[in-house]
Amino acid sequence: MTETQDQTPPDVQADADGELLAVPVAALRPSLEAVLMVADQPLDATILATAVGYPAEEVTAALEALAVEYTEQDRGFELRNVAGGWRFYTREAYAAVVEGFVLEGQQARLTQAALETLAVVAYKQPVSRARVSAIRGVNVDGVMRTLLTRGLVEEAGRDGEHGATLYRTTGYFLERIGVQSLDELPELAPYLPEMDDLEDELTEMLGAPAEPVEPAEAGESPAAGADAP
Fold first, then answer.
1. H or E element in which residue 86 lies
2. What is the DSSP letter of 193?
3. Which residue has the higher pLDDT, 12 or 171?
4. Does the pTM of the predicted model rise above 0.90?
5. Strand partners, 80
6. Nearest to 53 by CA among 3, 14, 4, 2
7. How far is CA 146 from the centre of its chain?
8. Residue 104: what are its φ and ψ, rounded to 5°?
9. What are the residues whose beta carbons fall under 8 Å from the beta carbon of 155, sequence distance 6 or more?
């Protein structure tokens, strides 16, 4: 691959029929890195080519060069071509470091946003992510991922009417708050969106005070309506 591949491309380029096509004005390698950074599944060269506005063959060459470059520089991550697509992975040599971080994170206290979302699931289960978002008035995708990762909530089938994934609390949740069943949960606050009293009770049962919302973990943003699950 030549150095020109990482230069800013022109505003337009011709396709196979000679027609001019608009493409993003951005360097190839950084564009690929940016897209792959937010990908939650492997992306093939065609999808990446469409995203960054370069021919697929140039994208493939750039990906292969990046993979070699990361290995030569002994980065903590690597770029793999797996299952027909490309994705970032942590390097196996640093697995112990990642494992220690993840396990430590499991013991971290829940944020206020996580406690509120957990309370909604506990009292409204089985409930869809969209319903939780509507009750809280914010997008809860990031918080739900945190609760799923920590084993406090789990999938509970699908809504027969809309097909949305439903969620419920787990046995581990009951274990953490020290009750035998959901019947032992505190009385529900009069208005679910106003959860101050409920948060205090759940926080006391969990044995950890609610902390300020941390955007990186909470992953929340104001939402006009419910998000799709």
1. strand 85-90
2. T
3. 171
4. no
5. 87
6. 14
7. 9
8. -65, -40
9. 165, 166, 167
